[in-house]
């Protein structure tokens, strides 16, 4: 190659470098947040007619309730004239796609299911539209009092509503009536009884274990451990709202959690939610604590071998503790970057979906309840006899046992790694929680 | 009129001549290279520079104000004090050593076995290529269910043979790493087999004829002729797989999530956690650049060895 060519190539490279640096020196200016959706023009329609010709995209977690979306979205389209595209995503994918959509201000998703633990993050950063203006405007139609108080933790952040209650889950104890009766054991009412029952019901030779638990590294084990912290009256945050993972109480609770794993199937330290469900539905375990939304599935012979053998009870708490039950589930939020017309239509969708009439359909199609009227409806109770247990769990529900703060994912990741490390014998309980605490502090913002 | 038209024709011809001349000389290189250079600049160089720049900043993607604070080399210093980085580097090295060594040996063995022609052999070769065609994520999920301690096929037969599988291959501290290495070996050995087959096919026949005349045994022919002649191919394969193996992410993501504990948390998985869970872009970029430098050094080393071999 000749000299001139070299010179040209070098100059080109320098040019590219300069271009790169120049492109870098201007810090990305924060894009102006889309105007809050409240205060629409007085003439703008505020009913379903606002949806005529609108196209919405709904990002939904592939939880059981996605079946209810599949069934109800066409009905909404018919009633409103809008088109709603349902995008079904797994838990981790949903979170990452939403965050990418929010920080890039691309506004791809107009509606999204919001896990209770994302409320703080989405609310604090203004990712989702605060729904308070809409709620104030349409208060007369919403029957807000009918929605259970604990359900409002699905999306509430510092007094505003980053998401609207969609699907309330209670942490309940599922147990096999037949196995417990065989062993002459009453459904455990306390954690101590739970441990004893798990021990008594474990019979590896028969392929039956006491309890199925979530042990897989990541969100699974972190969330299950936090459920046990709640049931033992422990705390993740201190009074000042700072993480306090390695308190002596929490170390004791972690040891108890580890004790339970002795009576879980061998593979439980690798269980994600679906494997835990499989273990219970296959009849490998006698008991399982888990979200109430899965309950209806145990009576479905297509996916369950334990039809008619299952009952549920409120999740046992530590002896002597004021009963409180883990509450979780999903809210539904509106993208702050969507156009005001899309936001109005999205709100109409939420309003329609959460209305008492549609809620019964929602529940019958594998949705989860948020309204007292749905849970006490005689028809519904006849179809789902476990509703009263759910209602009791909701009444004394604790939606904050997994801190709904913007830094939640940091806590979850640290616990997800170190609780798992404890369960597989890599760290002692003290080491695990100390390491988790340190990891959280190092990353705390 | 005619004069003007003639002039236009002449000027057009001149312009055409100029272009032709430019394309004939050095200009041709430039004209042909330019699209590629622009493409490389946009696709490779700009993101690289951006990632380097970001690594000097404290930049959290989810920060509502999108603040970027210049912190100099803090992110890099933090990387070398981060206990997870050090553990994950060690884990990555074990993974790379395990996968590359096993795949080289098995790949070479398979290539030798399947070097001759024949319908059966051709069919077998085609079948062996199948794993390579599958997306690593799918491979990971399939193996995860195969390995499952309670419902998986592999533990089922192991148990039947009286082997204690404990919590299952992916959940036991000592077994998780060999288990994920096995997945990688299953998927990528065929690639090395192909590379080695190509190398074997291109070897000259004369040395073998001479060796045959001298009465060398098969083993002697392999050690003294095949291996030395195959060295350049071996090195190319080694380089390729080492670099790929260093960057492993998908199989780990789909099977263990870096667990149990941190037994399979490779560096790339840690970078993913920092970037996509904490959205700590500055630190993630710094870690990614560290990985990049490691891989670059390895590549340069291998290329140097390779060139010396060929001289």
Describe it for me?
The complex is a heterodimer of chains A (445) and B (311). Residues 15-42 of chain A have low confidence and may be disordered. In chain A, helix 2 crosses helix 13. Chain A starts with a helix and ends with a helix. Chain A contains 18 helices and 11 strands. Chain A folds into 2 domains: 48-169 and 328-389, D-Maltodextrin-Binding Protein, domain 2, CATH 3.40.190; 171-326 and 401-443, D-Maltodextrin-Binding Protein, domain 2, CATH 3.40.190.10. Chain A is globular and about 65 Å long. With 445 residues, chain A is of the alpha/beta class. In chain A, a hairpin with a 2-residue loop joins strand 4 (156-157) and strand 5 (160-161). By secondary structure, chain B is an all-alpha fold. Helices cover 77% and strands 2% of the residues of chain B. In chain B, strands 1-2 form a two-stranded antiparallel ribbon. In chain B, strand 1 (57-59) and strand 2 (68-70) form a beta hairpin. The radius of gyration of chain B is 27 Å and the shape is flat. Chain B starts with a helix and ends with a helix. At the A-B interface, helix 1, helix 3, helix 11 and helix 17 of A face helix 2 and helix 13 of B.
Helix content of chain B: over 70%
- Count of individual domains of chain B: 2
Give the integer mean of the pLDDT values of chain A. 89
Characterize the overall form of chain B. Answer: flat
Give the total of domains of chain A: 2
Work out the helix count of chain A: 18
Please report which band the strand proportion of chain B falls in: under 5%, 5-15%, 15-25%, 25-35%, 35-45% or over 45%.
Answer: under 5%
Radius of gyration of chain B: 27 Å
